[in-house]
Amino acid sequence: MKQSPLIQLSGVEKRFDIEQSWLNEIRFNKGKVSRKKEQVHALNGVNLTIQKGESLCVVGETGCGKSTLARVIMGLNSLSAGQIHYQDQRIDNLNERQRMLFRRSMQMIFQNPYASLNPRMTIYQTLSEPVSFHNPQLSQDDVDYKVAKLMESVDLSPDLSDYYPHEFSGGQRQRISIARALSVDPDFIVADEPLAALDVSVQAQVLNLMMDKQEERGLTYLFITHDLTVVEHFSNRVAVMYLGKVCELADTKTLFKSPKHPYTQALLSAIPRLDDNSIQPIRLVGEVPTPFNKPQGCVFQARCAHANERCKHEEPKMVLHDDLSSVACHAMEEGRI
Amino acid sequence: MTLLDVRNLNVCFGLKSGVMQALYDVSFSLERGERVALVGESGAGKSILGFSIVNLISKPGFIESGSIKLDGKELTQLSHRQLRHVRGKRIAMIFQDPMMTLNPVISVGVQMVEAIRSHTTMSKKDAKKIAIDRLAQVQIPSPELRFDQFPHELSGGMRQRVIIAIAMILNPDIIIADEPTTALDVTIQAEILELLKHMCEVCNVALILITHDLGVVSRVAERTMVMYAGRIVEEGPTLEIINDPQHPYTQGLLSALPQMALPGQRLNQITGSMPSLMNRPSGCAFHPRCKYATEKCSVEQPGYIYSGISTVACYMVEDMLSEFSEYDEV
User: Fold this and answer.
1) A125-176: per-residue pLDDT in tens?
2) What is the least distance, in Å, from the CA of A134 to any CA of chain B?
3) Min CA distance, A64 vs chain B (Å)?
């Protein structure tokens, strides 16, 4: 694969203010009155490079910041700190009008096809709107032609274009979502749990379609999921997230063969396998910490079996290993695992 | 003696546009301490089957015909009052979303004590002792503390543990778990499944696990029933079904899993999607999506036949078996 970065994230942070009345924000500290806002730290310094033509999967548990990551890349949420580059252009500080140029090349597929399609728009309206908006020079016939082509490309008959979303099944709706994302001929697609709301047999249809489109158009995917079996099948590289940080980044093969971070190891051991149930899942002690207060040291240390004093105070940095995987773990660095 | 025996169960829903049949001639039995999985896609009728065992189907649904026997006692004929002694006490249920199951304004402990005292004449003090005991049994740390907490103070996995504790509290014979881990993360899912399996083994409780995840099935259940459009299409030991599925739908379901293909390869897909129960295809309900379908399949519903591995309702398997037996005779 050619190594040319398409998207580059450096030190991306995102904090959300918790809405509460100003009275609750007042704190007494050493005889002084101060106002303090509680914040949720959704992303704590994410560095990630997405290469052209690859599919990068982001995995992690609920609340680790996967979806926030997708949203800040798409510009649906602003950043608290850090930078995002698309090819060589910085895109996180653009205004709406400047951003419009990039909306054509970046598109998103959402989790729930029941919620992400406008129920009052026919499929034709849903698909033709982005086409004619981004290509105002096209004639009506051209738009019609393009919509028909789009529907064919996702295995839907163009005769169905006057139907409304509720008349389709979940899998068909997700295919319409994919068609909508493809309608502006993007280079880069962010898919936020596109299979979560679908049945197994329909999941296969959608996954196959996404792989076909990647081959046809040379798309780059950022694929967010919690289903590790899909990851193993679909992606080239995997980023494992925990509490707003990437804790391991590796090629899919390497990651599944030799997971290095203790969290990744626990995650992989928990996959329900069909054939071989000899692997006992590694039990993580404790609960997922809430991202209210930025934890000191390693984010995973409270649940980690290998944690020591250093992990409590010092934040681990991503270290590149021989097999090109990078891991943020003191224990790994010191050779304790 | 079989613990639960369901025979020719038909469940219908009376709708404005006509009667919709949700379950077709469902028959199965369950032994004491056995763990059975009910697998299928959404709309297959798995949850309806789970609900109808304890007659939790609300109007316009009704059990049209068939029998459900618990220890030889017919359940479908019981009044609401009599059913109340069965529900919770002999057959307990675990639902998908633990936040919806627990009452948010009552503390965990009170809900547990309530469950005990509504079925027994135990004092509050004794009930509390048992409740704390059960919380410890489902591996909740510091159960005395958790006893007084409210559901929102617990995490998702912890809540599901509390639900399991409540389900187990009266030593039921059967637990029906309706997608108990769908709302949970993988690491927690693995823990909850382990716990559920362990508790069933220790207390000799039979489990009916309703799920769509075949990986979950292989981890927990000894026997599997695959449902399609309101009918059980295949039934047999879990490992055998996973290694050698007989029914084309089970085959399709298994080969659609990403684990079954090499990375980057296209997955096998079943064309089309599950028919709505309103317009169920004639004959075998799977025939419009089946690649082996013949004319016979679209006319008549296949009966059950034992293939040597599992019990299947499919003409293809039937024909194959009769061919084999002809060879044997020659």
Assistant:
1) 999 999 999 888 999 999 999 999 999 888 888 888 899 998 888 888 999 9
2) 33
3) 11
